[in-house]
Design a protein that fits this description.
globular, Photosynthetic Reaction Center, subunit C, domain 2, mainly alpha, 2 strands
Length: about 350
């Protein structure tokens, strides 16, 4: 009987420990001592993410000499100020970044490269302009590191981390009724029961991202205080997404002693503030207007096109590609070019 009890205890211990994460775990202090501002990393997870965040070698530089691409090729609406050599280098790079299997035919009719018969060519042209806009006007978020097509695509036709508005989820003739946009564990909300679409209100629309009001019981009678517990849940859902996207915890940006205080936050919070607005501009000014160009098979359950969020670029790394400066090798992506 005693032997049986010991075996049972050992099995219970194995089952209990199997749910735990085996050491070692690395803790990095990021704030003042005593503030609890630390990042906790799993070296095995970091090793896996490092392999997924390797930047490809840049293509050999091309001479700026010779005729301009716009004078040699037809219907060149962007990058036309590059030399033919530079233009071909850029097109070759885009092919490797976005469509390594399909090649030029992914965007072009190879019988007539000038025509715009494929929607992918129209979209790609606009995405080049978007990339230039980000690198030129959003240094408050991307700094001098910048972005390229590879930052999001990583060799895939469609970036693996994008979002569309989810379908409405209701249980008809059930006590559960309307789920109020939450209460289903989804990856977008960090597998929690928080609202499963934090992107539409914050990365497309511009609703306030708040967790508490400035005055106690303000506007109760008039319902003017929108910083309620319900609104807070939407904010928390977005924060869960940001944390998961960057592979960090709350203290990467915040001092948990005073979440709301900007004075006690890390500089990364300001960078994130700009990143939210950058994503919003990308979605509204560049991606959503292309909706009619996409076939129905590329649209979401509500007919919207795939849009960007924090994961689109970061993909688990606190800096996309761990800060690899790919963009500097492609100066044509640094500023908005003329045809």
């Amino acid at each position: 009987m005693k032997l049986f009890s010991k075996i049972a205890l050992m099995l219970a211990a194995v089952v209990t420990l199997s749910a735990c994460e085996r050491p070692p775990i690395v803790t990095v202090q990021t704030g003042y001592r005593g503030t609890g501002m630390e990042q906790v990393y799993n070296p095995r997870t970091l090793a896996k993410e490092a392999a997924l965040n390797q930047a490809p070698a840049p293509a050999p530089e091309a001479s700026p000499d010779g005729p301009k691409a716009s004078l040699v090729y037809q219907n060149v609406q962007v990058l036309g100020d590059l030399s033919v050599g530079q233009f071909v280098r850029h097109m070759t790079s885009i092919t490797e970044w976005v469509a390594p299997k399909e090649g030029c035919a992914y965007c072009h009719n190879v019988q007539n490269f000038a025509e715009d018969s494929k929607y992918t060519k129209i979209v790609a042209r606009r995405m080049i302009q978007m990339t230039q806009k980000v690198n030129q006007d959003w240094k408050t978020h991307v700094a001098d590191t910048g972005v390229t097509c590879y930052t999001c695509h990583r060799g895939n036709n469609i970036p693996q981390q994008v979002w569309m508005a989810p379908k409405d989820r209701k249980y008809v003739n059930s006590l559960l009724g309307d789920l109020a946009g939450q209460n289903i564990a989804t990856k977008a909300a960090g597998l929690s029961s928080l609202p499963f679409d934090p992107f539409t209100p914050y990365l497309k629309d511009a609703l306030p991202i708040r967790v508490n009001g400035n005055e106690a019981m303000a506007g109760v009678s008039s319902n003017a205080n929108r910083a309620s517990l319900k609104q807070t849940e939407w904010t928390y859902s977005l924060m869960m997404h940001m944390s998961d996207s960057l592979g960090v915890n709350c203290t990467y940006c915040h001092n948990t002693r005073a979440f709301q205080s900007w004075e006690e936050s890390r500089p990364q919070r300001v960078t994130s503030w700009y990143g939210i607005r950058m994503a919003r501009e990308i979605n509204n000014d560049y991606i959503v207007p292309l909706t009619d160009q996409f076939p129905a098979s590329r649209l979401g359950p509500k007919g919207d096109v795939a849009k960007v969020n924090c994961s689109t670029c970061h993909q688990g790394a606190f800096k996309p590609l761990y800060g690899a400066q790919m963009a500097k090798h492609y100066p044509e992506l640094q500023t908005v070019s003329k045809p």
